[in-house]
Each structure stands twice: as structure tokens, then as C-alpha cells.
Model the fold of this input.
Amino acid sequence: MDLWVLRAAGTTAAKGDPNMILRCRLCHAPIAACDPARLIPPLTSAVFEPLEPGFPPPFPPDVPWEAARCPQCRHHPQGYAPDGAKSLETDQGTWPLPEPEQPDAASPDPKPANPGPIPKRDKPNRRSR
Ligand SMILES: [Zn+2]
Done:
């Protein structure tokens, strides 16, 4: 049975255009190329690639996204509004970011915080005044 080959081949359906251009919200300069499929919070600077192959990356990969700066105006590409972090400005308009997935926090723990059976502190050598 070669079903797995067929399945693997079926998953290579290419999207039309994987690249989107990130624009600065403040100065509207095109900053970086990015794959919309990778724009999943928490964002990292590493998902943004240079506009043209061969150019240095727009942001140092080890810089947190919060610390990324537009190369043109030296401000954060999303601006500083509280709601600004929920979307990106792109050549395709405002791109809403998906809600960050937090499997740990999303699944409520059915058990309350229970330290377990508390050992009796019945030390025989306790002195009573
Ligand atoms: Zn800018």
C-alpha cells in the first residue's frame, strides 16, 4: 500500500503567494517579507525576511519582536497603541493576527491547587515553655 505517498503528495498544495510585505504602521515603509502562515503569536523577529534575497534580515533574529524597530523611522513596526499588537500592516492591508495559543493556560486544571496531605509536624523534641 502506497497510501502514505499519496497523502504526502496531497499536502504539497501550494498557496498562491506565500510572501507578504510587512509595512511600518508609523511611516508606511516596506520593511520585510513574511509568510502569513508563520505570523502566529508570539511573533519573533526571525519570521521576517529581507525584502530581497541576499539582503540582511530586517531585524536581528535574536531580538525579541517587542524590541524590533523599523529600519526607516526606528519605531516599532506595529506602533505603540495597545491594540496595535493584534495586527500587522502589510501590502495586503491590515493583517489580523490569530489569537495566541496558550494550551497550558487555556485548559483549566480540574484539580484545585492542592499541596497534598500535610505531614503532621509533631516533633517529639518540641519544647514548650
Ligand atoms: Zn517606520
Summary: Residues 24, 26-27, 29, 70, 72-73, 75 surround zinc ion (CB under 6 Å).
